[in-house]
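User: Some background: our group keeps a shared notebook of sequences we're curious about, and every so often someone picks one and asks for a predicted structure to add to the entry. Today it's my turn. The entry only has the sequence so far, pasted here. Could you supply the structure so I can complete it?
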Amino acid sequence: MAVEEIHAEMVSSVHKVLVEAGSQVTAGDTLVVLESMKMEIPVLTERSGTVRELHVVEGEVLQEGDLIAVVDA
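Assistant: Of course. Here's the predicted structure to add to the notebook entry:
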C-alpha cells in the first residue's frame, strides 16, 4: 500500500482544516489551508485514498518540514 506523507513547506499557521482522519480524498483535494505572510496556501494531496493521520489543528504554528497528514492510497 502506497503512503503519502504531507509536510509543511514553510513556516506557517494552520488557517483551516478541511478533512479529518478517516476522510476519503481524491488526488488534488485540499486537506488544509495554511497562512503565511497574509497569504492563504492550500495543501493538496497527490493521491486518492484515506486520510490515515491528521497531525494539525486550526491555529497551530508549523515549522518547515512538520508533518501535516498521512494519506493511504
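Suggested note for the entry: The CA atoms of residues 54 and 69 lie 4 Å apart. The first strand starts at residue 3 and ends at 7.
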